[in-house]
Amino acid sequence: MEQYIIKGGSPLHGEVSIGGAKNAALGILAAAIMTDETVTIENVPNVRDTRVLLQAIEGIGAKVKYVYNNSVQINGGSICDMNVDYEYIKKIRASYYLLGALLGKYKCSQVALPGGCNIGSRPIDQHIKGFRALGAEVDISHGMIKTSAKKLVGSHVYFDVVSVGATINLMMAACMAEGETTLENAAKEPHIVDVANFLNAMGANIKGAGTDVIRIKGVNRLHGTTYSIIPDQIEAGTFMFAAAATKGDIVVKDVIPKHLESLSAKLLEVGCEVVEGDDWVRVVGKGGLKPTNVKTLPYPGFPTDMQPQMAVVLALAGGSSMVTESIFENRFKYVDELNRMGSKIKVEGNTAYIEGVELLTGAPLSAPDLRAGAALVIAALAAEGISEIEDIEYIQRGYEDFDGKLRSLGAVIERADSERDAQKFKLKIG
Ligand code: UD1
């Protein structure tokens, strides 16, 4: 079992380049199968989630070729199977984007039904409601969700909750429906805009992505294109918060600062210096962090995927803070681990009450999920002494070369794949 061994206590310094957005990539890779022509997608983060989705795409018969580490060619002309197995969906929920993509292109799809996950129950009722509104029959049986339609017809869909996944799935299905579809109360995340831009580059007609009303005029066919994915807002934010927690000075490069505004605003509130350039943001963590309150909200609000990293920063601030989670029901699993490092956090309902402490201390830890795992890495980098973090495969789902990038900023971190390696590294740094 791989683990990170981290010796904390040194401020992180330097520049780090941010990769393509994982959550945009998942939508775009699925959408790429909607044409029979070859699509080249650049700036694809080479992380576990994108690799598994590409396997699922190969599994239905499409051709997938890595041109370089971060550049992938997909050809959906040879798809022969409309059925995406549980094997993929249990590893990565976003395989369900193939429901919308296959339904749009072939008017039928079959994907194993995703269950809940570590951050809570995750219904897909809004996806289903949308497919039905376009005229598809949706049937759930034997753990599979099946969609089929003689033809898809544009419609008006009002989402009862703001859902990134449902917005992307419906954009894909509707862009090859007859006539016009309006999606209301749509999600506005940067990756929604990126998926829409990608579909438009393939010949779709989608307007309004990035606002809460998206209008889609159906087209008969999509064509090949070359497209580069936007930078990852959450990877960037994770390094920005690592600068704050370690009292470091980091320039995150190759980002879109506008996408990071809610994060920069919170860093300023806690007393960090934040400087923005055209495609970079510099964060200087000054120590003497101030407390504040945060509530997670759909974009442009504070992202739920940065909630655990924010809690780590506030755990080190002087005073009382509150973190309220309004998107997912079970996203405080990391709190027990942080408290084992000396933080003082109490969770009641969907709110974490944080009494800041001066120092965290290294401990053996276990990553409960992707973003919480990244937050524990930040905590370990800020803490005094050595931490060992297990279950890092969660972290590898969404961060490419996380330990390598942290080492380039001066972090003392090693990935060990055996107890012997872990002991050797601990002796070296201890
Ligand atoms: C996406 C992101 C995830 C991020 C989340 C919220 C991807 C691959 N993942 O997840 O990293 O944390 O957005 O920004 O992009 N809901 C329903 N019914 C539905 C769909 C969603 O009730 O049919 C609820 C969910 O339970 C949740 C909320 O809506 O409470 C938001 O979920 P959603 O935006 O759909 O999240 P994901 O697309 O799964």
Topology:
Elements: E1 3-8, E2 13-17, H1 22-31, E3 38-42, H2 48-59, E4 63-68, E5 71-75, E6 83-84, H3 86-89, H4 97-106, E7 108-112, H5 125-133, E8 137-141, E9 144-148, E10 156-158, H6 164-174, E11 180-184, H7 190-201, E12 205-207, E13 213-217, E14 226-228, H8 233-245, E15 249-253, H9 261-269, E16 273-276, E17 280-284, E18 293-295, H10 307-315, E19 320-324, H11 335-340, E20 344-348, E21 351-355, E22 364-366, H12 370-382, E23 385-390, H13 393-396, H14 402-408, E24 412-416, H15 419-429
Parallel strand pairs: 2-15, 3-14, 6-7, 10-11, 18-19, 22-23
Antiparallel strand pairs: 1-23, 1-24, 3-5, 4-5, 7-9, 8-9, 11-13, 12-13, 15-17, 16-17, 19-21, 20-21
Bound molecules: uridine-diphosphate-N-acetylglucosamine.
Concise overview:
The protein has 430 residues and is an alpha/beta fold. The protein contains 15 helices and 24 strands. The protein folds into two domains: 3-18 and 231-429, Enolpyruvate transferase domain (UDP-n-acetylglucosamine1-carboxyvinyl-transferase, Chain); 22-228, Enolpyruvate transferase domain (UDP-n-acetylglucosamine1-carboxyvinyl-transferase, Chain, Alpha-beta prism), CATH 3.65.10.
- Radius of gyration (Å): 22 Å
Class from helix and strand fractions: alpha/beta
- Uncertain stretches of 5 or more adjacent residues: none
The major pleated sheet works out as: 4 strands, mixed
Q: Give a count of the beta strands, DSSP E runs of length 2 or more.
A: 24
Strand content: 25-35%
The figure for the number of domains is 2
Bound small molecules, deduplicated? uridine-diphosphate-N-acetylglucosamine
**Overall outline:** globular
- What is the CATH fold-level name of the largest domain? UDP-n-acetylglucosamine1-carboxyvinyl-transferase, Chain
Helix content: 25-40%
Query: What is the spatial order of strands in the main beta sheet?
Result: 22-23-1-24
Mean pLDDT: 96
Looking at CATH, the homologous superfamily of the largest domain is Enolpyruvate transferase domain
Q: What is the architecture of the largest domain at the second tier of CATH?
A: Alpha-beta prism
The CATH class of the largest domain turns out to be Alpha Beta
Total of helices: 15
